[in-house]
Structure formats: structure tokens, C-alpha cells
Specification:
- The protein is built from three helices and 16 strands.
- It is mainly beta.
- It has a single domain, classed as 4-Layer Sandwich (Metallo-beta-lactamase, Chain A).
- The strands form three sheets. It has an eight-stranded mixed beta sheet, with helices on one face. A six-stranded mixed beta sheet has the order 7-5-3-2-1-15, with no helix packed on it.
């Protein structure tokens, strides 16, 4: 399977069969222009403009914006109810965590998770091979809490998202504080525009690796 970042919390996930998922497409008020993209499925973690610009995705995709179990064109998806803040959603509302099973790989997109990890949430998420996690704080969990999620979920691969860059104009932090939580040897900077994985990449036990896409 292919994982390609499209900016902010938006990723293109593509199975070897060709089935394509786009997560949390954003509007231009983020400071970025969403590239032209087509998908079979679009997932929306919550209905804020930097996560639910579904109309920008072509291909007449199935839109999933609620918790539950779904299957579309061979891709299994689990939507888990969570919160956008640490006050039971009273400040920013709900957030849906999405788990994807593609080519035997378990990918978890935490959306705009704002709550600290609890045993119930960790159990609901289950085994994770690749974790897509917000780290910028303010509107989501910060670097320290994000590291706590990593330590509890024990994914093999972590890809940070929802952090400040030269183009993102939101009041959030850069990725640096999150990367400082890891040994330098466990952080890799990706010059390519995507990563590719299959089940065999996760058959052996090894330490969590963080991949940061150079933009």
C-alpha cells in the first residue's frame, strides 16, 4: 500500500488493488491548496473546514463521517468515536478515529484527537502498524500527549500531521517538539512524495520509526 501526504491531516492511502482513500481534505483557509485528487472513499474526522472539504475530491467517493464498521471495494474501515478536546467534546465537539486495513497493514488516522489516551480508547483502536497522529497542540493533542499515544499503541511507523509549517497559517506548533521525544536514529526525513508498505514490513519486531515528509 501507498501512503502519500497531501498536507495538514490529509493523506492519500492506496491499496495494491487500486482502491484509494483520502482522509480529512482541507479548504484553502489552512494556507495550502489541496492538490487535485480522486478517491473511492473519503473519511472526515469532524466537520471543520480544515478537515471536511469533500467537494474538492473527485471520483464520486463514498464519504464516511461517522463511527462504525465499513467495507468498500475490499478496504475495511473502523470509525471510533472520540473527542476533539479534553472536556468531553464540550469545547470543540467530537472527533472520529479511523482505522484502515489495506494490503494487510493496519493504518490508524487519529483525526483531530484532543483527549488524552485512555484504556478504552487504546483498546478500541487495537493493533496499529502505521499511526498518523496530530502533534501541533492548541486544537489537538500536543507533542507530549502524542508521544504518550505512541508509547501505548506501539506502532511500527509514526507519521506526524497537523503541525505548523511555512505554509500552514493555523496557530499550532511545529513538529520539532514531537521529534525531540525520540532518539535521533529513529527519525527519518522522507524526500519522496510517498511511502510504500506491505504486510511483510511488519512481520519482524523492531522499534518505532518516525517518518517526516520534507516539504
Amino acid at each position: 500500500m501507498i501512503i502519500k501526504p497531501l498536507g495538514h491531516s490529509c493523506f492519500l492511502l492506496k491499496e495494491s488493488t487500486g482502491t484509494t482513500v483520502v482522509t480529512d481534505p482541507y479548504a484553502k483557509d489552512v494556507g495550502l491548496q489541496l492538490p487535485a485528487v480522486s478517491a473511492d472513499i473519503v473519511t472526515v474526522s469532524h466537520h471543520h473546514s480544515d478537515h471536511d472539504n469533500v467537494k474538492a475530491v473527485s471520483g464520486n467517493p463514498l464519504v464516511i463521517d461517522k463511527p462504525g464498521m465499513f467495507e468498500e471495494k475490499g478496504v475495511h474501515i473502523l470509525g471510533i468515536d472520540a473527542k476533539h478536546d479534553e472536556h468531553g467534546g464540550k469545547v470543540r465537539g467530537g472527533n472520529i478515529i479511523f482505522n484502515f486495513r489495506m494490503d494487510g497493514v493496519n493504518v490508524c488516522h487519529l483525526g483531530d484527537i484532543g483527549q488524552k489516551p485512555s484504556p478504552l480508547v487504546i483498546e478500541a483502536i487495537g493493533p496499529v502498524d502505521v499511526l498518523l497522529i496530530p502533534v501541533g497542540g492548541n486544537y489537538t493533542i500536543d507533542a507530549e500527549i502524542a508521544k504518550d499515544y505512541v508509547d501505548r499503541l506501539l506502532p511500527s511507523v509514526v507519521i506526524p500531521m497537523h503541525y505548523k509549517t511555512d505554509k500552514i497559517n493555523l496557530d499550532i506548533e511545529k513538529v520539532d517538539a514531537f521529534l525531540d521525544c525520540f532518539d535521533e536514529k529513529d527519525v527519518s526525513y522522507v524526500r519522496a512524495d510517498h511511502l510504500e508498505f506491505d504486510r511483510a514490513d511488519f512481520d519482524d519486531e523492531y522499534n518505532t520509526k518516525v517518518f517526516v515528509f520534507e516539504k
